[in-house]
């Protein structure tokens, strides 16, 4: 049966490689096959039989095998079973177990099969709205209204006179009237508000008139009165400089704005703080500047706290003590914290790369040459630890100020007394001298 399967499947080329070719080693092995046995055999094993007889015997065996394989056709394969016959002559089937035949059990499974219910999909969300929100897509907006082809590009941060914007708006509406433009309806508003806005916009277009010669000359004159040389890049540099140094540090602000002289920056700053409310994003700009100024004030307060702490010791690297309370922690020792505070004050808290320099100072310190914990800390970890220590120092300074204020107390004899007028007796009973 195995030979039949081999002939039907493998030898017909279904599983064999059709392009397989004999290589040099395989040909040599075929030639050498049996040569060792011939040379090592005795004379009795070697006969003078004709080669034609040998080939005839091989052909006869092949014919018999082929005939046997032909008798094993597809009908025989259909009747193929995996039943076995035991020594007692009785046939046993693999489907039998404990006297029960499970051969037909699988056919009855379909009758007892309970199909699970179909999944019901609830359409409880709008697909379009979901993907519009996910992709940040909005409804198609109304087309932009046309503008005159040669109108100058005026930015709000250039601070042109307000009269110029009135003339430019008048010119725009006159151009729309000349081309017969109709005001569209805003789809983002409700129907009533959209109709009202559309009527007002259309009325402005219908009532618009072209600029007169005097107004055109006035417009040309106003176009040179703003900060025309200031670009968006210059404006952003000015805002970032105010955030970094504060609005009062004009020296650093002038150095921060590239391509502008100190006089130009100071002139622009004066106009900016006078007319900053005219900018469209003034709330965002002021929030950015105020956030930067708050950071500056925080750095100043931290510097004062460190100065006050260091001033209480003659040799802070050896004598400094920190009031931990319940926030000491288990990782850093008091010697390590003392070094961090003293070296941070020495390097300067408000320097740009102070924590990188602090990390290098720790690695170079001789007392930490075997302290691998502190030497392996990153700049970010040192910064977090220093922030914790600064908080403890500020709390300690506040407690000391409160204690000193309680010790001083109110001045004796002043509590509950009103200011005496001129000529009334003083503390010693003598009348005050009039000036």
Bulk shape? extended
Low-pLDDT regions: 418-429
Q: Major sheet: size, sense and barrel closure?
A: 2 strands, antiparallel
List the strand order in the largest sheet. 1-2
Mean pLDDT: 77
Count of beta strands: 4
Structural classification? mainly alpha
Helix content: 40-55%
SSE order, as H and E? HHHHHEEEEHHHHHHHHHHHHHH
Measured between the Cα atoms of the first and last residue, the distance is 139 Å
* Percentage beta strand: under 5%
With helices defined by DSSP (H or I, 4 residues minimum), what is the helix count?
19
Oligomer: single chain
Radius of gyration: 50 Å
Protein topology:
Layout: H1 2-10, H2 24-32, H3 35-40, H4 51-71, H5 74-78, E1 84-85, E2 91-92, E3 96-97, E4 100-101, H6 105-112, H7 127-134, H8 162-178, H9 191-207, H10 213-222, H11 232-245, H12 250-256, H13 262-275, H14 282-311, H15 316-319, H16 334-347, H17 354-364, H18 372-375, H19 379-408
Antiparallel strand pairs: 1-2, 3-4
Helix pairs in contact: 8-9, 8-10, 11-12, 11-14, 12-13, 14-19, 16-17, 16-19, 17-19
Task: Tell me about this structure.
The protein is mainly alpha-helical and 435 residues long. 55% of the residues lie in helices and 2% in strands. It is built from 19 helices and four strands. It has helices at residues 2-10, 24-32, 35-40, 51-71, 74-78, 105-112, 127-134, 162-178, 191-207, 213-222, 232-245, 250-256, 262-275, 282-311, 316-319, 334-347, 354-364, 372-375, 379-408, and strands spanning 84-85, 91-92, 96-97, 100-101. The strands form two sheets. It has a two-stranded antiparallel ribbon with strand order 1-2. Strands 3-4 form a two-stranded antiparallel sheet. A hairpin with a 2-residue loop joins strand 3 and strand 4 (100-101). Residues 418-429 have low confidence and may be disordered.
């Amino acid at each position: 049966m195995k030979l039949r399967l081999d002939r039907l499947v493998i030898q017909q080329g279904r599983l064999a490689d059709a392009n397989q070719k004999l290589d040099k080693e395989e040909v040599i092995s075929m030639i050498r096959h049996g040569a060792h046995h011939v040379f090592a055999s005795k004379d009795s094993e070697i006969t003078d039989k004709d080669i034609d007889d040998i080939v005839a015997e091989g052909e006869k065996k092949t014919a018999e095998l082929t005939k046997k394989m032909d008798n094993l056709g597809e009908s025989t394969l259909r009747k193929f079973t995996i039943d076995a016959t035991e020594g007692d002559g009785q046939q046993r089937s693999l489907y039998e177990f404990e006297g029960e035949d499970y051969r037909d059990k699988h056919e009855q499974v379909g009758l007892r099969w309970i199909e699970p219910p179909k999944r019901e999909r609830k359409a409880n969300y709008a697909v379009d709205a979901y993907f519009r929100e996910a992709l940040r897509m909005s409804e198609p907006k109304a087309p932009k209204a046309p503008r005159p082809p040669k109108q100058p590009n005026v930015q709000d941060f250039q601070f042109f006179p307000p009269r110029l914007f009135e003339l430019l708006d008048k010119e725009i509406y006159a151009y729309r009237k000349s081309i017969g433009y109709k005001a569209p309806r805003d789809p983002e508003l409700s129907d009533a508000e959209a109709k009202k806005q559309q009527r007002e916009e259309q009325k402005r277009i219908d009532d618009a008139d072209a600029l007169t010669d005097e107004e055109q000359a006035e417009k040309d004159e106003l176009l040179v009165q703003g900060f025309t040389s200031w670009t968006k890049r210059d404006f952003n540099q000015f805002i970032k400089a105010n955030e970094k140094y504060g609005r009062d540090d004009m020296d650093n602000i002038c150095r921060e704005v590239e391509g502008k002289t100190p006089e130009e920056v100071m002139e622009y700053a004066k106009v900016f703080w006078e007319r900053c409310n005219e900018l469209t994003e003034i709330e965002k700009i002021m929030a950015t500047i105020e956030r930067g100024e708050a950071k500056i004030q925080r750095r100043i307060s931290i510097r004062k706290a460190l100065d006050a702490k260091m001033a209480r010791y003659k040799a802070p690297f050896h004598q400094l003590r920190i009031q931990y309370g319940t926030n000491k922690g288990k990782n850093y020792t008091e010697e390590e914290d003392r070094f961090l505070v003293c070296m941070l004050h020495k390097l300067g808290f408000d320097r740009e790369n102070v924590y990188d320099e602090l990390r290098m100072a720790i690695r170079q310190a001789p007392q930490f040459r075997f302290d691998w914990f502190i030497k392996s800390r990153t700049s970010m970890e040192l910064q977090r630890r220093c922030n914790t220590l600064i908080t403890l120092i500020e709390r300690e300074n506040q407690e000391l100020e409160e204690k000193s204020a309680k010790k001083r107390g109110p001045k004796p004899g002043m509590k509950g007394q009103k200011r005496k007028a001129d000529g009334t007796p003083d503390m010693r009973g003598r009348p005050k001298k009039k000036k």
